[in-house]
Design goal:
single chain, 4-stranded mixed beta sheet, globular, mainly alpha, 20 helices
């Protein structure tokens, strides 16, 4: 897994979100300012900053503009090497992703022994989605991994609550301080804290008075976890700016109703609450989606389940389902079901209700939690179950290795593999701007001195990589001759002039399963 992620990190150019996080992390290091990227809390960007601190990058923010311009300035306009900066920004996330693999192993071993732990770790380590996003300087894997870590510690608190409950609060606080999408997990995990203390005290006084006492202790434990969570969020903001200087940026939307009350009552810094208002503004926006070859406006509630069906190895899907059923039906595993399956269901329901159908990255907790659930199959007695489990894990490994090093556009064999993903999904599922460097190499090696017409979806700067191209949408169609190069997300949603240009061109090559080259 480490080899796959480091290789990917070295070869891929910045994806759409990464320059914003890298630029913001540099501002954290240099100016201790919270003014950029308020819609995401600072901890994930502080993790990215631990790598960037070693690069001694140049940056002048005097007239940088918005956060998108900041990212471009850091990577391409300040004399820095974007390849070097991106690698160092990605390495801390890679290290954290590997550590979360150990959490998966430890959690599964607690439930089903060492062999079960190895099975879960294998599913995690060969997950194309975890590899793809764990190798990027983004926030999705850290947020999901911190939630998993908190749940595992709550499970362990069933035996040693005084040791593990505060640690669970730290992990939950880290998740909430990384990405606001972790907030729906908070009430679930607080209830799990109550459940863990109840179990730990199950042999105490069985009278009604003893029951009341156990409930009271469970409630106190939930309060402790909640207070530690809040403290970690405050600590993340104080780590950036000990004086917590904050001026709300222009355009922060007003939030009314229950959402407004929730924001106002959150015991977090004002910068966090304004970030939530920005996020609710995104949720009130109508975005464009693409699923199974169909464009649409708005969001589809079934988008994430279908996208996961496309982008998850078939053997992994089978093991997830069998593991979840086993966890619910086998008495030995049933106590773990609230810890493994309930947070997964709640987070998935919250993600499915979101307005942005941009990729399975919004549900990366699924391959983490359900890898743990799959370990439950190893407690079953029939030997054929163990043999089938081993065969399915091998099938997963082969499917994952076949897509190397193109993990972002992975889809399973039932949907045609990575080369066909762009026909069914778009954006971070396939084409997130990651292959600009590979495109530059391909054009230099195979198509030197050809006229290039480029429609690129991403945050990279083509000219920095030696791609000198024109926009075919800005000239009459009869002038577009040579190579037409189009990002597959743009192909999927092409209309008007671009659609006509594509229809009248011949596809001759592809790069990274995310960019198509046509000849005109």
């Amino acid at each position: 897994m480490a080899v796959a992620m480091v290789t990917t990190a070295v070869e891929q150019t910045p994806t759409i979100d990464e320059p914003v996080y890298v630029g913001t992390a540099e501002v954290y290091l240099r100016e201790h300012s919270l003014r950029f990227n308020p819609e995401h809390p600072p901890l994930g960007k502080l993790i990215i900053a631990t790598g960037l601190a070693l690069t001694h990058a140049h940056l002048d923010t005097a007239s940088v503009g918005d956060q998108t311009a900041l990212g471009r300035r850091v990577l391409y306009e300040s004399g820095n090497d974007p390849w070097r900066l991106m690698l160092w920004a990605r390495l801390p996330v890679i290290a954290l992703t590997l550590l979360f693999g150990l959490v998966v192993f430890a959690f599964a071993r607690d439930l089903a022994g060492s062999v079960g732990g190895v099975v879960s770790l294998a599913l995690y380590a060969f997950s194309p989605d975890v590899i793809a996003h764990g190798s990027l300087a983004t926030l999705d894997v850290p947020a999901a991994g911190f939630v998993l870590t908190s749940v595992w510690l709550l499970w362990r608190a069933r035996r040693r609550p005084r040791v593990h409950l505060p640690s669970a609060g730290v992990a939950l606080g880290a998740a909430v301080a990384t990405k606001m999408s972790a907030l729906p997990a908070v009430p679930v995990l607080l209830l799990l804290a109550v459940l863990s203390v109840w179990y730990a005290r199950r042999t105490d006084d069985p009278t009604p008075r003893g029951t009341v006492r156990r409930l009271a202790l469970g409630g106190a434990a939930a309060v402790v976890v909640a207070l530690v969570t809040v403290a970690v969020v405050w600590a993340a903001y104080l780590a950036v700016d000990p004086r917590l200087r904050w001026t709300a940026p222009g355009g922060v939307p007003a939030v009314h109703g229950l959402r407004g009350l929730a924001v106002d009552w959150l015991p977090f810094p004002e910068a966090y609450r304004d970030g939530m208002r920005v996020q609710f503004g995104f949720e009130n926006t109508t975005w464009h989606g693409f699923l199974l070859g169909r464009q649409y406006d708005g969001s589809l509630w079934y988008y994430l389940p279908v996208a996961l069906l496309v982008k998850t190895p078939l053997g992994m899907l089978a093991l997830w389902l069998a593991g979840a059923v086993t966890m619910v039906t086998v008495p030995r595993l049933r106590p773990a079901a609230p810890y493994v399956l309930v947070p997964t269901a709640v987070l998935l329901a919250a993600a499915m209700d979101g307005a942005r159908n941009f990729g399975v990255r919004y549900a990366l907790f699924i391959p983490m939690f359900l890898a743990v659930a799959a370990a439950g199959l190893l407690v079953l007695r029939p030997r054929w179950v163990h043999a089938v489990t081993a065969a399915l894990v091998l099938f997963v490994a082969v499917s994952s290795l076949r897509t190397y090093p193109y993990y972002l556009p992975y889809s399973n064999e039932a949907f045609g593999g990575p080369s066909r993903t762009h026909l069914r999904l778009h954006d971070a599922n396939v084409d997130w701007g990651q292959d600009l460097g590979r495109l530059a190499d391909r054009l230099r090696q195979r198509y030197p001195d050809e006229k290039i017409w480029l429609v690129y979806k991403g945050s990279g700067v083509p000219s920095w990589y030696g791609i000198h191209a024109s926009d075919p949408r800005k000239v009459p169609a009869h002038e577009v001759h040579g190579l037409l190069v189009v990002s597959d997300s743009s192909v999927a949603k092409a209309e008007g002039r671009l659609a006509a240009l594509i229809d009248s061109s011949e596809p001759i090559d592809e790069v990274g399963h995310s960019i198509t080259i046509y000849r005109r």
